[in-house]
Structure formats: C-alpha cells, structure tokens
Specification:
This protein has 9 helices and 6 strands. It is mainly alpha-helical. Helix 2 runs parallel beside helix 6 and helix 6 packs across helix 7. It is elongated, with a radius of gyration of 26 Å. It starts with a helix and ends with a helix.
Length: about 325
C-alpha cells in the first residue's frame, strides 16, 4: 500500500522537493548576503541607526514579502493539489473499488494515504519554514513586528500546522464531494477563510491582553526602542466637542485595542482645548505639557512563542478531527 501511494504521488513529491531545493539555494545565498549587509550597516551604525535601519529594510523588503507569501501559500497549495485529490480522484474514477475488494481495509487504505502523503507535505513545509525563519531573522530583529499577521503566519511552527490542516481539510472535502475540482475549490475557500478569520477574530483571544495607561507626555520613543510611541494621531469633531484619538505602538508588542481617546487624570475623556483637540493646537506639542493619557490593551513581545504554540496546537487538533471525520465517513460508505 505504501509503494502504491508512492507511485501515485512520486511526481508531485519530486517536483515539490526540486522546488524546495531551488528555494533553499535562493534563501541561503540571499540570507548570507543579508547578514553581511546587516553587520556592515545596522550592526555598526553607532548612536544614530534609524537611517541605516530604514535603508536595510527597504533593500530587502520586496524579497521578504515574496519569501513570507511563499511560505503562507505553500500549506494552502498542499491542501489544494495534494489533499483534495487524495481521495476524490479515487472515488471519481472508481479505482477505490478495486482496492477495497483486496485484503486491504478501508481504514488502512485511508491511514496509509493520509500518513504517507501528509508526512511529505509536512516535511516540505517544515524545511521551508525553517529556512524562511532563519532568512528573515535580521529583518524581524529590525522591524520588531513578529505579531503582524503576515509575519506571524510565515514564521516558526505555525506553517506546519497550517499544512496539516489544509491537507486534511482537502482530503475531507474530496471524500464528501467526491469530485476533484470542486473539492480543490472548496479547500481553497476554506483555507483562505480560516487564514483571514484566525488572525483577526480568534488569535487576539488566545491570552488575556495586558492593560496599561500611557502618559502622552512620555511619547516619542522611536521604533525599535522599548518605549511607547504614537503610530497615529487623529482629530475628529470641531470646537470644544473635538476629540483626539491616539494609536500607540511598542517594538515587538501587539496592540489589540486600536486607537483610543485621550483621557484626563481622572480617567474621563478629554475634549476641546483640554484634550489638545482644537485645530489651532499642535497635539504632539500639547501632549508634552499635559497630564493626559490613553488606555491601551496589548500582548507583550515575550508571548510570541506562546501564541505560536497555541495556534499550532489549535490547527493540529483541527487536523486530527478532520482525519477522524474522514475515517468515520469512509466506514459508513457502502460503495
């Protein structure tokens, strides 16, 4: 059964390994070049590093986007082109009847196909994830944005869990729909929906965010420093009813509360001149001389790997449930 599965998927496996070899060579070459550039510019920039950091990020920003996007796309492609046809093609062509009439049980047939092809998919994704994480580490150190959805999804452990989920979701779709192309389309829709839903709806609730009050007079830290700084300052309304809302950021920290209204020392929302909100007033200059503050909820930088493990466990659990569903559905089929 293992040999048969290998013969059915040997072309896909060889193509995937060849593509991985090409990607690995490109990542190794450019990664070593990136480290040389980092050491010669950012590493020895002295006290004023902002220009050097901006130039470094600009130089490798496009490559970083493509490397991260590739790693995010690979699990989905595994589900679409490996998972969805895994069972659907057998059911569509009727070859499953020949196998089921042999000495091999349906459960063993399914288990071998899921394990053999799924392990190759996980191995390819895992190697690519390790390469991209290593490659992007200088950029991640400069940007301090590992909680950003695009970056988080393309680093560390979670791509392996995404691959396992996409593959088993594709297999389940093929088993239920019994047609290869519709199963591939369903897998694509499901994978994209989950990739949008999890970062913005589910991930923020993995752990209870910490909350703090940040004095506006303390703002001004630069990106990369361990200080709060203003990411955006917005003015709404006119006259004494006008209000300023401030969005904060801190290197490596994930701010989950968004822009917040300024508040006075008693915690009440401050408006008009009292809240630095009149149009003739420079808000940042006014902040420096005020006792205003904003309330912010955030996930600290040191929770990054905890979030990685939580999300990995979530998707691996979903993968296990989907594999169990496939086994249950297959046993209840009569043809």
């Amino acid at each position: 059964m293992i040999w048969l599965t290998w013969r059915q998927y040997r072309v896909q496996a060889v193509v995937a390994l060849a593509a991985l070899a090409v990607a690995a060579a490109a990542l190794l070459i450019t990664g070593l070049q990136m480290r040389d550039t980092y050491d010669s510019t950012v590493g020895g920039c002295g006290s004023d590093c902002e220009a050097a950091k901006n130039a470094f990020v600009t130089q490798y920003n496009v490559l970083s986007y493509f490397a991260t996007s590739l790693l995010i796309a690979v699990p989905g492609l595994m589900g679409i082109f490996w998972g969805a046809p895994l069972i659907a093609r057998e059911l569509e062509t009727g070859t499953h009847r020949l196998i089921w009439n042999q000495s091999i049980s349906r459960t063993r047939w399914l288990a071998v196909k899921l394990a053999a092809v799924g392990l190759v998919a996980l191995a390819v994704t895992g190697l690519l994830s390790a390469l991209v994480t290593w490659w992007a580490s200088p950029l991640d150190q400069v940007n301090s944005d590992r909680f950003t959805p695009l970056v988080f999804d393309g680093r560390g452990l979670v791509p392996l869990a995404y691959a396992a989920f996409a593959f088993t979701a594709g297999a389940a779709a093929g088993l239920v729909i019994r047609r290869t192309v519709p199963a591939m389309a369903a897998t694509l829709v499901l994978f994209v929906a989950v990739q949008i839903l999890v970062p913005y709806v589910i991930r923020p609730h993995f752990m209870t965010p910490e909350r703090t009050e940040v004095a506006l007079s303390s703002l001004g830290g630069q990106e990369g420093e361990q200080e709060w700084s203003a990411q955006q300052v917005m003015l709404s309304g006119d006259g004494e009813g006008a209000q300023v809302t401030v969005g904060l950021m801190k290197a490596g920290t994930w701010v989950t509360s968004g822009a917040a209204p300024v508040r006075d020392a008693e915690g009440q929302e401050a408006r008009g001149a009292e809240g630095c909100a009149l149009r003739e007033i420079d808000p940042m200059g006014c902040f420096a001389a005020s006792d205003l503050h904003v309330e912010v909820a955030y996930q600290p930088a040191d929770r990054y790997w905890a979030f990685q493990w939580i999300e990995t466990g979530l998707f691996l659990a979903l993968s296990g449930l989907l594999a169990g569903f496939c086994a249950w559905w297959l046993r209840r089929r009569t043809t």
